[in-house]
Write a structure and sequence with these properties.
Layout (H helix, E strand, L loop, with lengths): L4 E7 L4 E7 L4 E9 L7 E5 L8 E4 L5 H14 L9 E8 L10 E2 L2 H9 L8 H14 L5 E5 L9 H4 L5 H6 L9 H14 L8 E7 L3 E7 L2 E5 L21 H8 L5 H10 L2 H6 L4 H9 L3 H25 L4 E5 H6 L1 H8 L11 H5 L6 E2 L8 E4 L4 H14 L1
Parallel strand pairs: 1-6, 6-8, 9-12, 12-14
Antiparallel strand pairs: 1-2, 2-3, 3-4, 4-5, 7-8, 9-10, 10-11, 13-14
Helix pairs in contact: 1-3, 10-11, 11-13
Length: about 400
């Protein structure tokens, strides 16, 4: 195929992030963000990376995703990279929830759209926005393959023993209640990049991936396949996050409703938006929390300790699930940049072969790197994630086939 470019779209409820890549060498030609769609203060920020040009900003308002994507198409056209280019092979879309049905990237048709729409009840904040992006892009280029790449797909290899909750089977099946996992494109990319860093193929290594950002998740990857992950039916389960609680006793919900008089919507907002680090100490930025810890702030220290305790529990649990671990990989905003988090998470785990070299851990960089001591039984790596490249790679591989 002569067309080698892929446009990656990540459509949120009020934003569109995008990158245009040339898959001959995985180079980025342009990237940008439209934010606050539907508001008077909406704006577009566009960076023509290939030409080395200056970032351009365009004020809105952009009334809807259709207006936003037309503005994106106009900015790309100014750089000679328009959506009408014969070099554009496909548009790849991030779709958060694919349920059990979608286990791999999929060319979008009416049946696929209907299934994504049917999954809205288990992803009410994300799937509607993803659908809007797909439909708008299709209207702009109806002749071009639109490919959905699902956050949940990488985790569909989990065995039933990991994916099922221990509740009545008929009830669970009727309402599609099971553990799906998220951040799948990141976990897929990082697990493979970690294997490359070790000079081995993904099928030869077991990796614990720790995606630590404002949203955070862990996965156990056995020979290239996910066998467990910390997020569940929704992204609320698992690790302590910026504003999400992670694991709680389900009876907390009943208690808050019966004793606290809170509504379901109020409890939902509490656990998703007012919990985690922000609920514990008022901040969800790890840099600010560490600054407060260093200044002796006890509330910030407790929040940090709870965050690390939960993280360490999952590392130990996934070590047990895998039986043998070749590497632990830290990624995303906190994982890539917060050396104190990496050090604290592995402190005391020397008997498992896990440790960090303080000097290596302190180094900052944009490339995958090892931070474990020389000769360590288990490699510890920092691997910058690249979800857009992963989406583009999966999209291009599919349309080439």
């Amino acid at each position: 195929m002569s067309a080698t470019r892929v446009l990656v779209l990540n459509s949120g409820s009020s934003s569109v992030k995008y990158q245009l890549l040339d898959m001959r060498d995985s180079s980025r030609l342009a990237s940008g963000l439209v934010e606050r769609i539907g508001e008077r203060t909406s704006r577009l920020k566009h960076s023509p990376l290939a030409a080395g040009g200056a970032t351009r900003e365009q004020s809105g308002p952009f009334a809807d995703h259709d207006a936003a994507l037309k503005a994106v198409a106009g900015e790309l056209a100014r750089d000679g990279l328009g959506l009408d280019s014969p070099e554009l092979a496909a548009i790849g879309h991030r779709v958060v929830h694919g349920g059990r049905h979608f286990t791999r990237p999929t060319v979008v048709d009416d049946a696929v759209l209907a299934e994504i729409e049917r999954l809205i009840p288990v992803a009410p904040l994300h799937n509607p926005a993803n659908l809007t992006g797909i439909r708008t892009a299709t209207a702009l280029r109806p002749d071009l393959p639109q490919v959905a790449v699902f956050d949940t797909a990488f985790h569909t290899t989990m065995p039933e023993s990991a994916a099922r909750y221990a509740i009545d089977v008929e009830t669970a099946d009727a309402h599609r209640v099971r553990r799906y996992g998220f951040h799948g494109t990141s976990h897929a990319y990082v697990s493979r990049a970690t294997a490359r860093l070790l000079g081995r193929s993904p099928e030869e290594v077991n990796v614990i991936v720790l995606h630590l950002g404002n949203g955070a998740s862990a996965s156990a990857v056995e020979r290239g396949r996910c066998v467990d992950t910390s997020m569940g039916l929704t992204p609320l389960e698992g690790l302590v996050m910026g504003t999400r609680s992670g694991d709680v006793d389900p009876a907390v919900i009943f208690h808050l409703a019966r004793v606290g008089g809170m509504s379901i919507d109020e409890i939902d907002a509490l656990l998703n938006k007012k919990s985690g680090l922000v609920g514990l100490c008022g901040d969800n930025d790890m840099r600010e929390i560490r600054r407060r810890v260093d200044e002796g702030d006890e509330r910030a220290k407790l929040a940090f300790d709870i965050y690390i305790h939960r993280l360490k529990k999952y590392i130990g649990a996934y070590y047990a699930v895998l039986g043998h671990v070749d590497a632990v990989a830290f990624t995303a905003g906190v994982g890539e940049n917060a050396a104190p988090v990496r050090k604290a998470a592995l402190a005391g785990l020397g008997s498992l072969g896990l440790a960090v070299d303080d000097a290596l851990n302190a180094v900052r960089g944009d490339e995958p790197r090892l931070i474990s001591p020389a000769g360590a039984r288990v490699a510890v790596a920092v691997v910058p994630t690249d979800e857009e490249l992963e989406i583009a790679t999966q999209t291009y591989a599919l349309v080439k086939r």
